[in-house]
């Protein structure tokens, strides 16, 4: 018979910038499958201008990318014990956000970004917790199909939602894009779509364009 136990657990996250009252906006960014936060956060270095704080949580499960040694990556979840893993990482992400914001002004603007697998992660964080945010960016990722429609619409209806992908992204097929459109229709959200010439990666130029845009007044 399966049993469960709650234990103290340490998890890490990376930060670019210094939390202080000078910070005007926070980018809370979730990496994709097989990545580590300490490398993923480097893709946001151009945003580190003294007024922007970049926070990169890391998937709670690390593994060797090939065989039993060498490079290590992290993942947010697998199909095994799926719902419990989702609940665990939502608790973890909420704790990271709460800790970071203790050193910031309460009116700081917040962008939530998820790349690839991190898109599903950040979507659940945005819609299934009480996190305050102003902008949601799914980069090379899509809404997960299990988002609760009513709760998701309530959390996202007055937020800026942006879908970003490269025109040469081998993972975002026409079928995946159609699936994304169907999920967005189900939760009654019409995201803006931005494209760049490139593959399955963060495009620094487009990232800066989004960063320089004024936040929508809710």
TrEMBL record:
It comes from the Bacteria. Residues 74-202 form the Serine hydrolase domain. It comes from Roseivirga misakiensis. This is Serine hydrolase domain-containing protein. InterPro entries: AB_hydrolase_fold (IPR029058), FSH-like_dom (IPR005645). The lineage of its organism: Bacteria, Pseudomonadati, Bacteroidota, Cytophagia, Cytophagales. It holds the Pfam family FSH1. Signal peptide: none annotated.
């Amino acid at each position: 018979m399966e049993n469960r136990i709650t234990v103290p657990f340490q998890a890490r996250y990376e930060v670019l910038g210094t939390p202080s009252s000078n910070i005007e906006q926070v980018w809370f960014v979730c990496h994709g499958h097989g990545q580590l936060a300490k490398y993923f956060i480097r893709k946001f270095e151009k945003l580190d201008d003294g007024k922007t704080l970049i926070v990169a949580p890391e998937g709670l499960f690390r593994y060797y990318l090939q065989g039993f040694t060498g490079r290590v990556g992290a993942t947010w979840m697998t199909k095994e014990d799926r719902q419990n893993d989702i609940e665990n990482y939502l608790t973890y992400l909420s704790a990271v956000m709460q800790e970071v914001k203790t050193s910031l002004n309460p009116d700081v603007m917040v962008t939530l970004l998820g790349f690839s697998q991190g898109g599903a992660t950040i979507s659940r964080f945005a819609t299934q917790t009480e996190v305050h945010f102003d902008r949601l960016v799914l980069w090379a990722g899509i809404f997960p199909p299990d988002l609760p429609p009513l709760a998701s619409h309530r959390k996202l209806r007055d937020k800026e939602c942006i879908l970003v992908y490269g025109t040469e992204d081998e993972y975002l097929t026409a079928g995946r894009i159609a699936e994304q459109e169907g999920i967005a229709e189900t939760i009654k959200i019409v995201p803006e779509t931005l494209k760049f010439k490139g593959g399955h990666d963060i495009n620094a130029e487009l990232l800066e364009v989004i960063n320089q845009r004024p936040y929508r007044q809710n």
